[in-house]
Amino acid sequence: MKIIYAIYGASGYGREVLPLLRQQFNLKRENIFFIDDSFGENAVIVNSTPVLSYQEFLSLEADSKMAVVAIANSSVRQRLTEKLIDDGVQLVSVEAQNVIQYDEVDIGPSSILSAFVTLTSNISIGKSFQANIYSYVGHDCVIGDYVTFAPAVKCNGNVIIEDHAYIGTGAIIKQGSPTKPLRIGAGAVVGMGAVVTKDVPPGITVVGNPARPFSKEALRNERK
């Protein structure tokens, strides 16, 4: 039975996911591909791995096709995920061998957990979660669908992060409480290095320490 695997996205993050996928499923090089339509129809090799267009991947002969979407933009990730499902491609989750995961962690399908990620206890995570290297999720957190953690995010306990939120590199999210969890709204963006000490409304971008809503006016005031 021939099974082939693909990483959708041959950019930097996709190349970081490649060795994790190869190791997890003990793949030979002839059974793994990148999908990236931006390369056109020309044959390209990236990190010893062929880059195919989506249609080229679908046309390959195989008993089963598996894929993971390694793209940080959550809206694009959702669109591509749904396209793969519609075309009968099975989604896989990718997890580095040194991920730490404690008790009662429920995580949805098609996730990517990079090296040195820690998930402690009593955590609920939705589908297509991406946690980049050295990220941390504390106890009693609830994370929605298509949430993205850049490297070294520290999400302390009793935090709710809604769908499509993006948490930037090195951000720290203060611990909430069982009766009043700290909440980051749907589609919110937490900037690189921000320290979140209170709720972030949906769709808002926050930056700084303590984190506050980003605006051009605020940026001008900081530069004065």
UniProtKB/TrEMBL annotation:
InterPro entries: AcTrfase_PglD-like, PglD_N, Trans_hexapeptide_repeat, Trimer_LpxA-like_sf. It holds the Pfam family PglD_N. The record marks D140 as: Increases basicity of active site His. Gene3D superfamilies: 3.40.50.20, Hexapeptide repeat proteins. It comes from the Bacteria. The active site is at H139. The keyword Repeat does not apply. Keywords: Transferase. Residues 6-84 form the PglD N-terminal domain. One of its GO terms (molecular function) is transferase activity. Belongs to the transferase hexapeptide repeat family. PANTHER family: ACETYLTRANSFERASE (PTHR43300), UDP-N-ACETYLBACILLOSAMINE N-ACETYLTRANSFERASE (PTHR43300:SF7). This is Acetyltransferase. It comes from Chitinibacter fontanus.
